[in-house]
Amino acid sequence: MAQVLPSPGVESHPFHQTTKKRDVSSFSPATPSLLYHYKHQLSTPSPNISKDPSDMIDIRSSETSLLDTLDTQTLSSLTQHTGEKSFPSLLLWDEKGQSLYDSILATPYYYPYRVENALLQKQISHIATPIASSTTDILVELGAGNLSKTALLLTALDRCLDSCSQRPGTGKIVYYALDVDRSLLESSLKQLRKRTALKNIELRSLLGTYEDGARWLSQPDLAPYRKTMVWLGNSIANFEKEEASALLTKFTSQNGMQNLAGFLLGVDGCLDEEKVEKAYNAPGGENRRWVLHALEAAGEQLELGPDSLEGGDMFDEKNWRFEGRWDSERQRYENYLIPVKKLEAVVHSKEEGEKKKVVLEEGEKVFVLGSGKWTARDVQTICEKGPGLGLRRSWHSEGDDYGVYWLQPGKKRFDSGIEMDDDDGDDDDDEF
Length: 432
Ligand SMILES: C[S@@+](CC[C@H](N)C(=O)[O-])C[C@H]1O[C@@H](n2cnc3c(N)ncnc32)[C@H](O)[C@@H]1O
Known about the structure:
The protein folds into two domains: about 140 residues, no CATH class; about 210 residues, Vaccinia Virus protein VP39 (Rossmann fold, 3-Layer(aba) Sandwich), CATH 3.40.50. A hairpin with a 4-residue loop joins strand 8 and strand 9. It is an alpha/beta fold. The longest helix is centred in the first third of the chain and has 22 residues. The protein has a nine-stranded mixed sheet with strand order 1-5-4-3-6-7-14-13-15, sandwiched between helices. The chain has eleven helices and 15 strands. Bound molecules: S-adenosylmethionine. The site of S-adenosylmethionine has 14 residues, from loops. This is Histidine-specific methyltransferase SAM-dependent domain-containing protein. Pfam families: Methyltransf_33. Keywords: Methyltransferase, S-adenosyl-L-methionine, Transferase. GO terms for molecular function: methyltransferase activity.
């Protein structure tokens, strides 16, 4: 097969002339010449290319990826002297954490998943249209998870591409599911392949964090390719508004990532405290069990357990209680773990090469995870400020609580306020 490798000069790159045939399927890590290309020509960082037949690319950077430094991050967030102590939320997303999260999805109270899913079902052809017409080469889904909503989106996009005569070029879009959980990525992608028969989209996966993804996409070699980001499930709102803005900025040209076609975001804007409380602290204890899992995962990271010399019981569940609370000022539900007695442990710090003491006072709140609830106005502000992304279209659930937003670079285009497409069965697909 003829290889179309990215050349360093963007201007001279054939893909830049949009009337020519595109073939980004040559990104496949299984392609030997590309393996060579990645290993030998990329300067920073050099992704570890997996020869995994499932087409997974391991994009973690061993020095900086949160996935590889989770032990150090856990220790420093539990020993910091200023501000609130915390558990890195990534502790919740190992294999066991994912299955505990699935049990939350199965409760009747956890509305965000169902509402977003229903909205996508209803509006999917409208949602897929701007992606199809944005001449995207690469579609990356952040925190892709079980890919069940993805199947819907890709099927609609594939159909759109079939009928999109105005789309320049005839090459396929390459879809990458990015997540931190290897086994989840493998099983979800397998399922996705079974459930879909896509003619215009190839499926791959990226193992790494959001930051790893931003760095991977910013490689000069990928500069000529048009990129669309998909981030569903209200995961962006696990960050504080300022952090979310900063993270989005990493996927823009301000951070060296060229050719961003657009960002599709799924964001929950429900400000009904009672409804949120039930969803995030269900009577069956599903959320509590998931958040408490951070203890087991932290114990594994810090190698603390019954055999440890000092403080082996620090992360024993019986020494902790869960507390969830709605913070109306921050518009987010916050999950904490709180020691029921003073806890002390001595941990070997790999970073500093010495032993470090962890002391947690009785009743001291340790933050685990937050889930923000952002209105369309909030989303617009977060995306404009810093990332410079302008809101082009949005689709909303009944009552306007949940929004799916299509954003593109260029914040100055729409100054006249927000118009929204309601989930009212009306097929209007207004641009504003
Ligand atoms: C709330 S689930 C959403 C899954 C899916 N997008 C959906 O809408 O159903 C969050 C997903 O993000 C992944 N995740 C969490 N933190 C991450 C990080 N820092 N980098 C990459 N993925 C992350 C988790 O493993 C999990 O699969």
